[in-house]
Amino acid sequence: MSKNKQFLAEDFSCQRIASYQPFNAVDGEGIRCSVYVSGCLFNCKGCYNKVAQSFKYGELYTEALEEKILTDIGHEGVQGLSLLGGEPFMNTQVCLSLVKKLRERYGLTRDIWIWSGYTYDELCNESEDKQELLSYCDILVDGQFIQELFKPNLAYRGSLNQKIVDVVKSKISGEEVLYSI
After folding, report:
1. 181 part of a folded domain
2. Which InterPro entries does the annotation name (predicted)?
3. Domain limits at 105?
4. Structural domain tally of the chain?
């Protein structure tokens, strides 16, 4: 599917946010600010956030919202940003704006986790915007949710096919490196 690079953010994204959840402790390690983008074309059976599959759901992503998110991320004790959805890699305009400003403001003092239906290998061979977003990512929870492989006690993922990839170590080693929890 993604080898054809058919799901380009510029063709689908309405630059909307399904939800913003500051200061939570469920979307990755530590205290996080979580942005759920609107829109996903994977249509996974049993998706836990079905409403966010619509690119028109939620509120427009604005500079004011972006500034609020960046300010919240700066609070003491916040470990980082989590991008979920919907599909962040089908919303690269929104996600790239946010992660670039996060890195400008905080450098590497805050980490970036992204959940995606794409696998790490697919993203490494995807469109330039997807590869650019991946370059800002520290940890990628990859792979589409598969209802038949659902396991409720998996850390940070829903089905056994999904992996938690340490993107930083993967880039250094030249091969996929799984994150140790």
Report:
1. no
2. Aldolase_TIM, NrdG, Organic_radical-activating, rSAM, rSAM_sf
3. 2-173
4. 1
